[in-house]
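Friendly challenge for the regulars: who can give me the structure tokens for this chain first? No prize, just bragging rights.
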Amino acid sequence: MKPYKIGYTQGVYDMFHIGHLNLINQAKALCDYLIVGVNSDQLVERYKNKTPVICQEDRRTIVENIKAVDQAVIADTLDKTEMLQALGFNAVFIGDDWKGNARWIRTEEELRRFGVDVVYLAHTPDISSTALRKATEQTSSTACVEET
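First reply, four minutes later:
Bragging rights claimed.
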């Protein structure tokens, strides 16, 4: 039996890579039902001052087709309490590279009041979308497949 019924993780998932897959698979190993929030294009532009390479709907489609993902949603906020109210999970999964970060310490305290655990998972070293973006020297325009 897995320790959590419904788990949640959230990210940009731009230029999807093995680190993303590893985190999602680790999260699913700890919960019966995994919801993955895909940060909206507007949210990414607000907090990262970057335009995603892949548009939000394409990123959500990629994520929802991963075997370990039970549901993928577009997230318009970084506030996990707000996401909890909308989705009703009992654990949030995040890479351990965020452990000790002031925002995540606050998030742990806020979610603890609702009986929700923040679980830090092993971060895959030496891989990030930012590094991939630099390596490929892509333009900053968003790529999105047009439906016909």
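The mean pLDDT is 89. The beta strands are 4-11, 31-39, 71-75, 91-95, 117-121. Your move, everyone else.
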